[in-house]
Amino acid sequence: MARDVAIRGDMIRLGQLLKLAGVVDTGGELKALLAETDVLVNGELEDRRGRQLHDGDVVTVAGDELRVVAGD
Asked: Could you tell me the pLDDT band of residue 29, with boundaries at 50, 70 and 90?
């Protein structure tokens, strides 16, 4: 079951989402995570921390599913 992560606006970058969701705390941790762990965006492998995510996108990392939910 995916965990909803609310964002402000209609777009967030992958790195920002992973920090917001508490998956990583720093940019260094993010870089290592993307290098060592499969991160899927909507079922496709992704290694770009700048990947743009929009409402409804699902990120899967380390067995955790995060669904982007756009705010007002």
From this structure: very high
